[in-house]
Amino acid sequence: MYLFIHRKDLRTSDMRAFDYINRKHTQGIHLLIIDPILIGEGRLTSHSGRNFMAQAASLLFSYASAGKELHVLYGDPAAITESLLLAHPIEEVIVHSDYTPYSRQRDDQIGQAVRRIGRRWMPIADAPLADLEAFPAYARRAEPYKVFTPFYRMWGSFMLESYSPMGSTTIDDLSTVQEIDQSACHAFALPEAVSCALGGTNVEGSPKSLARLDRFVRERLASYGDARDAYANDQTSGLARFLNTGAISARSAYELTQGLHGSEAWIRQLAWRDFYLYQAMYHEDFFKYEQLADLSPLTDTNFKAWSTAATGIPIIDAALTQLNRTGEMPNRLRMVTAMFLTKNLLCPFTLGEQYFRLHLSDYDNTLNRGGWLWCSSLGYDAAPYFRIMNPAIQSRTHDPSGSYIRRWLPHLDHLSDKEIHLPQSGAIVDLKASRARAIEVYKTILK
Ligand SMILES: Cc1cc2nc3c(=O)[nH]c(=O)nc-3n(C[C@H](O)[C@H](O)[C@H](O)COP(=O)(O)OP(=O)(O)OC[C@H]3O[C@@H](n4cnc5c(N)ncnc54)[C@H](O)[C@@H]3O)c2cc1C
Q1: Which family does the entry's similarity section mention (predicted)?
Q2: What domains does the chain contain, in order, with CATH numbers?
Q3: How far apart are CA 266 and CA 222, in angstroms?
């Protein structure tokens, strides 16, 4: 018997672990653990928490539709694993690998517990599109890549030569254990708030993500490269929240678009996703970069105005309004608002990173960190510190009629296409002066 634990892989097909399990022909317990650490601090009711619960509800639905059993328990993952290992003749514990600091620590603890009891611990890589565990041997470099462009070149040839396609095993092919140890079920029962969150959500998951992808391919893929920054028209795939919870695999997104007109620009973005996952895997500093730079010249003075959409810079306030209300913000505006916070307002990037954690539906620790490091000119392959986006110019360039601002800040609708992008009277900073100050401050931070 095996134990398989779902984490950021909330789907029932194209799972590397399912292919592995299918070769063994044994029965197993399939488990989803709701980890209190990951849903604390208001996360359960946040946009990203609600998204996770929606995909988890969908996973339960997929198991039930296939006549299979998925058990859901609440508590410390190592303690739950240990209690099931002691109660069932489980030989092997199988998971998909995860690379964030918390998940590495959690998996060390589970792995130790599994080995202590004399069972096998089997993490399997699944999240990246390319096999990033095999990639370093292919790239044959003394040091991991730090810059995207050479990484992307090598990634492209690696994908051509060594891409490993979607797996064929689905939950229908596996045999799941119906009943598990009752004392574990009682000890790790879901609290009512979690049950309600899980039961009271719309079932989304793979069907919805595939429908989105299908629509994206039919209507937007061909023009994606040119139109992705025209944020007022919503031209991107909207798949991130499904990719990050694993409701859809990066492989299926790739295979459904590969070779189609316009796919190159889109697949390049999937390569950016792999680039950040690669950094999380191979660059120790990726998650502690703030400890390497002296960020003491930065301050949280204006953070509240930024987060409550009260800066007086229309595009910033519109983007934060959209985020606060819906959990969404287009990529270009994530860049503009992050640069504005870290440069013009001189706030530490960690404050914005933390804010996005609670507010983005598609929040992902690794991609979010990559984005914030890039915008704050820290980390590897970041935006040069002296190249600071001007929010008013960005707004005019990517949405000349200001329709995005008009949608989210209707009280500005009376302004002309020219006026609508400009800072309002009472704006909390002067764009030109704050830009010059940021360059001086970041020069000292980065020296
Ligand atoms: C400050 C900041 C914070 C960010 N935080 C997150 C986050 O928490 N979660 C998240 O998924 N993305 C994050 N991104 C990256 C990017 O903004 C989103 O992936 C994208 O907006 C999601 O929309 P989409 O699915 O329509 O993407 P599409 O444009 O359709 O792209 C397809 C996929 O490619 C990947 N991708 C696209 N752009 C990027 C990028 N710049 N970096 C890495 N991968 C990318 C995503 O997986 C995305 O779903 C952040 C970017 C910045 C600048």
Answers
A1: Belongs to the DNA photolyase family.
A2: 1-123 (3.40.50.620), 131-163+205-282 (1.25.40.80), 289-445 (1.10.579.10)
A3: 10
